[in-house]
Design goal:
By secondary structure, the chain is of the alpha+beta class. It has a single domain, classed as Jelly Rolls, CATH 2.60.120.620. The chain has 6 helices and 13 strands. The strands form 3 sheets. Strands 1-11-8-13-3-2 form a 6-stranded antiparallel β-sheet. Strands 4-12-9-10 form a 4-stranded antiparallel β-sheet, with no helix packed on it. The two termini are 26 Å apart. The model has no long low-confidence stretch (mean pLDDT 93).
Length: 221
């Protein structure tokens, strides 16, 4: 798959029909119901490991990574009437690692579900590609992602800078069909509203990097 110029400029791109409806149905059956908003530890599931190593995933990612795709975080989200939430405008700024090691440029540290998380230097955040595989169709009614195109290129942003971007940049609603993939950079400003529908919005959120971490740090996955 050739490199997409719009991804470099906008920080996101939609890849239609990467997976079939049957493949998405199978993944939903394998993953089952979710307690709360999301589920982690997905690499323990054989079907997820198979998907991560598939040609579809590799071909989507290779044009945008410095090296071979390596999964560094995986979350299964299921927004539904039983688990409904909104996400304010933000950037994804942390990495999940196996253990804390004090390395220059990394910090602050936090713990999520017993896993150490750290904010890395911006250069490493820029080396990550997030892949969102849509197992259900999504639109404004069931909480589709909204993004501010191009905001991935201005570094780590504070609250005032985020508000300034919201004032200047027109948001894009990422409406997706079953089997579509959304690729995005973690520094891209993004948000989502609560669902007002009785439909599910199930998404496999996979983060990939093509480089190793320095100073003995290891990816959690």
């Amino acid at each position: 798959m050739a490199s997409n110029p719009s991804f470099k400029c906008a920080g996101f791109t939609r890849l239609p029909a990467v997976f079939s409806a049957a493949e998405c149905d199978r993944m939903k059956q394998v993953l089952g119901t979710v307690a709360g908003a999301g589920r982690r530890g997905l690499m323990e599931v054989p079907a997820v490991r198979e998907l991560v190593g598939s040609e579809q995933v590799r071909d989507c990612l290779l044009p945008h990574l410095a090296g071979a795709p390596r999964l560094v975080r995986a979350i299964y989200f299921d927004k539904s009437p039983a688990a409904n939430w909104l996400v304010p405008w933000h950037q994804d700024l942390t990495f999940a690692v196996r253990e804390r090691k004090d390395v220059p440029g990394f910090g602050p540290w936090s713990m999520k579900d017993g896993v150490p998380h750290v904010q890395p230097p911006v250069a490493l955040l820029e080396a990550v590609v997030t892949m969102r595989i849509h197992l259900d169709a999504c639109d404004a009614e069931n909480g589709a992602l909204k993004v501010l195109p191009g905001t991935h290129g201005v570094g780590r942003l504070g609250a005032e800078q985020i508000q300034d971007c919201r004032n200047r940049v027109k948001e894009t609603l990422c409406e997706m069909d079953v089997g579509d993939v959304l690729l995005m950079r973690p520094l891209l400003l993004h948000a989502s509203g609560k669902s007002t529908s009785d439909r599910h919005r199930r998404i496999l959120h996979l983060e990939f990097c093509g480089v190793d971490l320095p100073g003995g740090l290891e990816w959690s996955e």
